[in-house]
Design brief:
Elements: H1 3-16, H2 18-30, H3 39-51, E1 55-57, E2 67-71, E3 77-82, H4 96-117, E4 120-125, H5 134-140, E5 149-151, E6 154-156, E7 167-176, E8 180-181, H6 192-207, E9 215-222, E10 229-230, E11 233-242, H7 245-266, E12 269-274, H8 285-296, H9 318-322, E13 327-328, E14 331-333, H10 343-348, H11 352-374, H12 376-393
Parallel strand pairs: 3-4, 3-5, 5-13, 6-14
Antiparallel strand pairs: 1-2, 2-4, 7-11, 7-12, 8-10, 9-11
This protein binds zinc ion (2 copies).
One zinc ion binds at residues 94, 96, 129, 154.
């Protein structure tokens, strides 16, 4: 089958599915579920794949809310990532109802073409992007092991094929002092809270000396047990971000020194535990360009990636995937100028523009997978670019 004809068929399938996909997106939006608790969303998405004749493994990879729908038996293998977790308090303020539904739209559209075109596609349900690191668990368990590329589309206020995402890490910082009566034996104590606050102030000064692509943000989660006891222990939780893993290592060292230095000044001790985090996204420029061409055919106008300020960058667990295989994480315009993780974005995620965003995302991904399946020179370029970037990282 001619690739252009295949794309036309995929887009016709998505047009045919329009009302079903929009209904699914809105149903997931109406029932927001947090990290690893996305039972309704995972079931709704995976059963839609099954309804359209796709063989589905659910749950998958020992994660109750992950699933994998597979089509095709031989040839280049592309994974389409679905996200569908929400945020505490504000529901789908990151628009993951759009991401998950776009993924299954593409998966269904590609299912009947895989055999004809000699390619494979897996529609992978990836839970817990918002801090739970679902894709890290999936990577550990081999979900991406035999894939040649992976992709997803995130709703944002603009169309851009390559957006910067920062590496991040969460740190739990604990000051250890000595408890004592706050009045009668104050001098016998070592005030862990004082040491922590001193470190916090150091970190706040550090923040004024960061590069534009670095972030330090923290909260105090434990400041003592009673107002008549010198605190023996006090705890803070920090999230640090930087443009690459190496730069994140440097930033962690600087933050660590703020708190270790404060501990030394007051005779306390400090322990720092990493809860892990996400790597930066190394998007594949070649595959992103192919995606852009397909999305432009849908009438979308793209911003030059160079015009996106680093100040608006967030982080995603797709970053870790991008260190293992060629990945794209383009964004499509959801039709609003509001920021992510806000109630305004929650409202924006089920408008008619949001519905258009999900349909276009499904179509552009399906067309890009068809390109990848049918253009060996594109695959060679994608993998050559990936090898070059990987070598640069060593
Ligand atoms: Zn988010
Ligand atoms: Zn998101």
């Amino acid at each position: 089958m001619d690739p252009q004809e295949a794309k036309a068929r995929a887009w016709a399938t998505i047009d045919h599915l329009e009302s079903e996909l929009i209904e699914i997106s809105h149903a997931i939006h109406a029932r927001p579920e947090l990290c690893y608790e996305e039972h309704f969303a995972a079931h709704t998405l995976s059963s839609a794949l099954q309804r359209h004749g796709i063989e589905v493994e659910a749950p998958a990879f020992e994660l109750p809310t992950a699933f994998a729908g597979r089509s095709g038996t031989t040839g280049p293998h592309v994974i389409i990532c679905c996200e569908y977790d929400a945020l505490p308090g504000i529901g789908h303020g990151c628009g993951h109802n759009i991401i998950g539904t776009a993924g299954i739209g593409a998966g269904i559209a590609l299912a009947s073409l895989a055999g004809h075109l000699g390619g494979r596609v897996t529609t992978l349900g990836t839970p817990a992007e918002e801090g739970g690191g679902g894709k890290l668990r999936l990577l550990e368990r081999g979900a991406f092991a035999d894939a040649d590329a992976a992709m997803m589309v995130h709703p944002e206020p603009a169309n851009v094929e390559m957006v910067p995402y920062l590496a991040n890490e969460t740190l739990v910082i604990t000051m250890h002092g000595r408890a004592a009566h706050a009045s009668s034996s104050q001098l016998a104590g070592i005030n862990a809270l004082d040491a922590l606050v001193l470190g916090y102030q150091g970190a706040t000064v550090l923040r004024t000396n960061l590069r534009r692509d670095e972030r330090v943000f923290g909260i105090i989660t434990n400041g003592g047990a009673a107002d008549n006891i010198v605190p023996a222990e006090a705890t803070a939780r920090y999230r640090i971000r930087a443009r690459s893993k190496d730069r994140l290592d440097g930033l962690r060292a600087r933050l660590t020194e703020c708190f270790q230095g404060a501990a030394r000044q007051l005779g306390a001790t400090c322990t720092i535990e990493s809860l892990g985090g996400y790597l930066d996204v190394r998007a594949n420029r070649t595959l992103a360009a192919a995606f852009r061409v397909n999305a432009e055919m849908l009438g979308r106008h793209f911003l030059d990636p160079g015009t996106i300020p680093i100040e608006v960058a967030g982080s995603t667990d797709m970053g870790n995937v991008s260190y293992e295989l060629p990945v794209i994480h383009p964004v499509l315009d959801v039709g609003t100028r509001c920021a992510g993780h806000t109630i305004e974005m929650t409202a924006a995620s089920i408008t008619s523009n949001a519905d258009r965003c999900l349909l276009d995302a499904a179509k552009a991904m399906a067309a890009t997978v068809i390109d990848f399946w049918t253009r060996p020179e594109l695959r060679d370029q994608v993998s050559a670019e990936f090898s070059t970037i990987s070598q640069g990282r060593r």
